[in-house]
Specification:
The structure is a single chain. This protein is α/β, with parallel strands linked by helices. It has helices at 13-17, 30-45, 59-68, 112-128, 141-151; strands at residues 2-8, 52-55, 74-75, 134-139, 168-174, 177-184. Strands 3-2-4-1-5-6 form a six-stranded mixed sheet. It is globular and about 40 Å long. The longest helix has 17 residues, at 112-128. It contains five helices and six strands, in the order E-H-H-E-H-E-H-E-H-E-E. It has a single domain (2-191), classed as Phosphoglycerate mutase-like (Rossmann fold). Helix 2 (30-45) runs parallel beside helix 3 (59-68) and helix 4 (112-128) crosses helix 5 (141-151).
Length: 192
Amino acid sequence: MTTLYLVRHGQTLFNAQHKIQGFCDSPLTAIGIQQAKIAHAHLQTEKITFDEAYSSTSERAVDTLELLTHQPYQRIKNLREWNFGSYEGEAEHLNPSLPYNDFFVQFGGESQIELENRISTTVADIVSNSPADSILIVSHGAAIANFYRHWEHTGTVKKNTKIQNCSFFKYHYQDDQFVLQDIIEHDFSALL
């Protein structure tokens, strides 16, 4: 059995400015850096270590991973966020109501099913081809939400709120299935 920690990056400039951020990128804010440091402290307190680490190629994910752990890692393009097409960098209030489904396809982006398949296949390829017992993957909110959606039927732990920056989705992988064990959120109230 393999344990997977799927983690959302820390707060970014576009998060703070309420801009749509998918394939485009913006840097971590000072709060985002502190969020990653708080998450790192949690890993140390709980003595959680990783045999392997992976990140989206986006700067915000790479920088978060480097604050969580100092070990070598691989960057993988298909761990990136949803491609929102020409909506990238625009104000979040332009987003349609959830679920987005195929909305962004008309603007050169991905459909929800394309994102779900991309992130689920990529994570499964990483974990199923690895001898590691514990794996860290740093990715993005919508990508993680769609991975969760893909595997929601296998477990009893449920996501009830929006995915917090630097939250950990802890999965067990066995017999070609991911089962969510825990959602670990941190207390960032001191940062506000």
